[in-house]
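I would like you to sit down with the pair of lines that follows and say whether tokens and residues agree.
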Amino acid sequence: MAKRALADHRPWLLASVVAACAYYFLWNNPIAEGVWGILLKGSGVGLLAVYAMRRTRGTGGAILVTALALSAAGDMAIEISFEAGGALFIASHLAAILLYARNLRNRPVTSQRLLALALMIAGPLLSWLLSGRLDIAAYGAVLGAMAGCAWISRFPRYRVGLGAVLFIVSDWLLFSRFGPIDLAPLPDLAVWPLYYAGQVMIATGVVQTLRADHES
């Protein structure tokens, strides 16, 4: 059974990693310009959504797949319209918040609560300081809420919680392109690896927990 699961499901995860790596090395290459580049960018997290769909079931799995699919759509849309991409990512974060809120950890310790609160505050604050834009700060509030809820969810903290932190850091680096603090070339080098690594950690951590629920 384990070998069959590996054959049936893990190739989607491997394909996602290959697509994400290909995009990272080709994003500034004429080969990846236009529609093909947009599709390649979306396929990284899009294939994670397929992986999650194949590996989970029930409401929790459906919410995870929805969040990942919306992120993949946001990855593609942001290449055409920053605002449209942002709207899709907001929808993705709201889906993720719903997932984490349905799976809160029982009696998190004080340090966990404080870090979750810090993420919720830092989300809009650093987004505004780095970008100088109130609309990005508003987006950052949703982003921070997502990361904070992930940290106090029952999912593996050093996979799902840390993955959400990598996600928020990647967005902060992205936002720095709009503001007064020049962090170049760090955003070009680190935004995509941090973002994708965070998504992989979130997807695999949630899948692990949801599968354990059904197998117990």
The helical segments are 2-26, 35-55, 58-77, 82-101, 110-131, 134-151, 157-175, 186-215. Residues 1-7 have pLDDT under 50 and may be disordered. The CA atoms of residues 66 and 74 lie 12 Å apart. The chain has one domain: 2-215.
